[in-house]
Fold:
Amino acid sequence: MNNFNLHTPTRILFGKGSLAELRDQIPAGARVLITYGGGSVKKTGVLDQVYEALKGLDVLEFGGIEPNPSYETLMKAVEIARKEKITFLLAVGGGSVLDGTKFIAAAANYPQDIDPWNILLTRGDDVKSAIPMGSVLTLPATGSESNKGAVVSRRSTGDKQAFMSDFVQPVFAVLDPIYTYTLPPKQVANGVVDAFVHTIEQYLTYPVNAKVQDRFAEGILLTLIEDGPKALKDPENYDVRANVMWAATMALNGLIGAGVPQDWATHMLGHELTAMHGLDHAQTLAVVLPSLMNEKRAEKHAKLLQYAERVWNITSGSEEERIDAAIEATRNFFEKMGTATRLSAYGLDGSSIPALLVKLEEKGMTKLGERQDITLDVSRRIYEAAR
Ligand code: NZQ
Ligand code: ZN
Structure:
């Protein structure tokens, strides 16, 4: 096992009715800006419940944060946060609202003479403070509710980039599985696929004898395989929703990634597909991952065999046959969730691959993966095999 330094300071308020604990988490005298997306929280009544819980506090709101939150929209909220001297941000929604709010939190406190897009260009390294934030999560997927990462898109340049900073880690997260009952099937699937791939990015690399991390990761994968399809079939099954929600949080709160090599190439290749073609985040992962697994089958050999056996119960056949079967099982699982795994299913014929590679190169993404051996040429092969 590799050395690690792990700090996961987000308080989790989990379960039915946990919004009742919201008020106690917000500092007395706070001036709060509630942030939300395109209106689902209005329709579902969650926003009303939040207002009710915060009665008596000084509260403003900013709605309209879109999926794959844009710098252009978020800068309007930054202006409000600065002008209104906001001291606490409360994100109510999915990963996009949470990520967008992390950007607002950091950008509001950023030196006023520097364009806050610089936060993305420096990947968060020069963030020195942020407005504290909490979240009420309505879509289990990204893990953003208890991690320090955020992904922001800039529409004018067609970029989608991530940053990380301890300063934007949410102070608390309210996770009420009932809030996920209203998710459309596509978003249920997106959440399950995203959490699955987060786990894979930290698990399917090479062995370092990290038994707890491996078995936690396998537990998350098995839970998603078991309960993901059930969430589609039986949307108001509380136990199913609770397990999916906690699996998604656990998949990217730092725990399973501590002390192990990490890949993240599927995500980097996927972000370019979203930025250029507008595919949902999870759709891009479902397209890239099976292809990447096959391309890196030699380097990931030992972990692919472990994954085949412990996650899919594949124990017969030659080693290469077992790896083939594990890749196929992964693809079938995504398809079963309703998430297509080929570029062609999204109307893409691969003609944009050279342009996607140019975007990767611009960002310095020329050596990806746990061994930094996914060069542009390898990325090209991965995209091509995903057609
Ligand atoms: O915008 P509203 O109206 O709220 O509707 C949303 C949105 O249209 C809807 N929705 C959310 N909760 C709902 C609901 N509809 C009905 N009932 C509910 N309970 O779902 C749609 C998608 O929401 P979005 O927040 O975009 O989805 P998700 O949570 O999958 O977030 C995706 C974003 O997170 C980034 C992705 O790149 C993408 O930009 N990621 C963030 C990560 C992180 N911070 O650690 C890691 C991930 O790998 C990922 O990159
Ligand atoms: Zn993801």
Residues 211-233 form the longest helix (23 residues). Strands lie at 11-14, 31-36, 58-62, 88-93, 133-137, 149-154, 159-164, 172-175. The pocket of zinc ion (ligand 2) is lined by residues 142, 194, 197-198, 267, 281 (CB under 6 Å).
